[in-house]
Design a protein that fits this description.
With 493 residues, the protein is α+β, with helices and mostly antiparallel strands. Helices cover 30% and strands 18% of the residues. It folds into four domains: 165 residues, Serine Threonine Protein Phosphatase 5, Tetratricopeptide repeat (Alpha Horseshoe), CATH 1.25.40; 64 residues, SH3 type barrels (Roll); 76 residues, Phosphatidylinositol 3-kinase Catalytic Subunit, Chain A, domain 1 (Ubiquitin-like (UB roll)); 53 residues, Roll (SH3 type barrels), CATH 2.30.30.40. 32% of the residues are buried.
Length: 493
């Protein structure tokens, strides 16, 4: 079956599904000879809708074999195993789905034809439920604590309720994918399925000038003598859709939906999702590229004409860069840095405590109210990237009121005031100091940011996310874009 036939059948099947003709849609899908990963996913969803769990499992198996990075397919197969009460396999698939998220808070599949957002916190929520079904309540709590780092405001109550249930060793409901949502073929490709007559019919014209014997096709018109003085915008740039961007870093695709680009390429962004992925076109090929690998290109005919020659892909990398989207600073309390600036305060919710930790640098974590010691130490352990056994917490700066697994946490939480509590932390392992050198100067008016000049040395304090780090330089502390620095070799303990 040709790609055009596959596309036509795919579009016909989702049209039937829109009319809730599920059986007819499934029959059309099954008639496709060589389905891709998205079509297999649609088949699995329709089997789940019919409660055909064995057929659904086989369809999701095929979808994952076609695309081993399709996180939503792992999520759906995990739900299939959960419904079949095969909880160990369900737990493994939810772990694979979380890994396929690559540390992102979410994946918006809209650019791939699926109007669905897969949240990392929901994947961890279901993983915790599968562990709870296996009787591993501690693992369930650990996964829900991890989910707190990935939750959005809309998912706050969901994770908090699940964590409260695990503390009481009670089960909770899973997050399920809406089965009536299906991957759809690209609407632009579908629109091209209809036959078009690009040439049209020849039109015969006759002269109205007396004694003019001409009769036939209209002749070519003479060129205008006084043409425009200003240069025209290059046709290749004017004809393409989307916003032009310059590629800053090389990107090697891992799936068929991603696009390989190298620094200096000019791509045109058609869509930009909230998950840091951009759907772009480059050399008549379309695919996904991380948006923080790109920089918007402002095309000005007067100032940039010299940049656009016969090879429009060869623009030089600009000296200035726009930083990636700023991270959300959640659960922070006012912490005076050595520069005297105060970050923005985010108040804790009624169901959580904000715990300020005094360490070699200060940081804050958010934990549900009434959390046991394992939850608190787990949050601090992840922040410091150290095992819990190497961390010691106390309620005072002298380290006399030690907090450990034998501590009655009710006494600790009584010290909280207004949802905030301050603790002190020491470690038994030496800290590995990581230093960076600034590749570009960074200046920001935001009080949370760390300003520096090209060539400055920066000490890493923490990694906020994949795009932003927190560090110290020239006696100041703040966050800064990771793309502006490079790690120095030979960092030592």
């Amino acid at each position: 079956m040709s790609y055009v036939d596959t596309l036509r059948q795919w579009d016909k099947a989702v049209t039937c599904a829109d009319r809730q003709e599920w059986s007819e849609a499934l029959c059309i899908f099954l008639s496709i000879q060589e389905p891709n990963s998205k079509i297999y996913f649609d088949i699995g969803c329709l089997h789940l809708l019919n409660q055909d769990l064995d057929d659904a499992e086989k369809a999701f198996d095929c979808s994952i074999r076609k695309d081993e990075h399709l996180a939503v397919a792992f999520f759906q197969r995990g739900m299939t195993f959960y419904k079949k009460k095969r909880y160990e396999e369900s737990s493994a698939d939810f772990q694979r789905a979380f890994k396929a998220l690559r540390g992102n808070q979410l994946i918006d599949y809209k650019a791939l034809g699926l109007r669905y957002i897969l949240y990392a916190c929901e994947v961890l929520h279901n993983l915790a439920l599968a562990e709870a079904k296996l009787g591993s309540w501690e693992k369930a709590q650990e996964n829900l604590v991890k989910a707190l780092d990935y939750k959005t405001d809309a998912k706050l109550s969901l994770i908090d309720r699940a964590l409260q249930s695990t503390l009481k060793q009670k089960l909770f409901k899973p997050v399920e994918f809406p089965l009536k949502m299906l991957f759809r073929p690209n609407k632009h490709y579908v629109a091209e399925l209809e036959k078009k007559d690009y040439l049209g019919k020849a039109k015969v014209v006759s002269s109205v000038v007396p004694q003019d014997e001409f009769s036939g096709f209209a002749p070519l018109q003479p060129q205008v003598e006084d043409g425009p003085t200003s240069p025209k915008e290059p046709e290749v740039l004017r004809a393409l859709q989307g916003e032009p961007h310059t590629v800053l870093f090389e990107f090697d695709p891992e799936t068929s939906d991603e696009l390989a680009v190298v620094p200096g390429n000019i791509v045109f962004v058609l869509q930009k999702g909230d998950d840091n992925w951009a759907y772009v076109v480059f050399n008549e090929r379309r695919g996904l590229v991380p948006y923080n690998y790109l920089e918007r290109l402002e095309i000005s005919l007067a100032s940039n004409q010299h940049k656009i020659g016969n090879n429009y892909q060869g623009l030089a990398r600009p000296l200035s860069q726009e930083p990636p989207t700023r991270p959300e600073r959640k659960g922070l309390t006012p912490v005076e840095s050595s520069s005297g600036r105060t970050p923005q305060v985010v108040q804790p919710t009624d169901s959580s405590y904000t715990v300020k930790i005094h360490f070699t640098f200060n940081f804050a974590v958010s934990v549900p109210r009434g959390s046991p010691y394992v939850v608190l130490i787990g949050k601090v352990s992840k922040k410091l990237n150290l095992p819990p056994t190497a961390i010691s917490l106390s309620c005072d700066a002298n380290g006399k009121s030690v907090i450990d697994a034998n501590t009655d946490m009710k006494d600790v939480w009584r010290r909280a005031s207004g949802g905030h509590i301050t603790l002190w932390c020491t470690t038994t392992e030496p800290q590995k100091e990581i230093h960076f050198v600034a590749l570009h100067s960074y200046k920001s008016s935001n009080p949370e940011d760390l300003n520096f000049q090209e060539g400055d040395m920066i000490k890493l304090l923490s990694r906020v996310n994949q795009d932003w780090f927190e560090g110290q330089s020239n006696g100041n502390t703040g966050i800064f874009p990771a793309a502006f620095v490079e790690e120095l070799p030979g960092n030592k303990l």
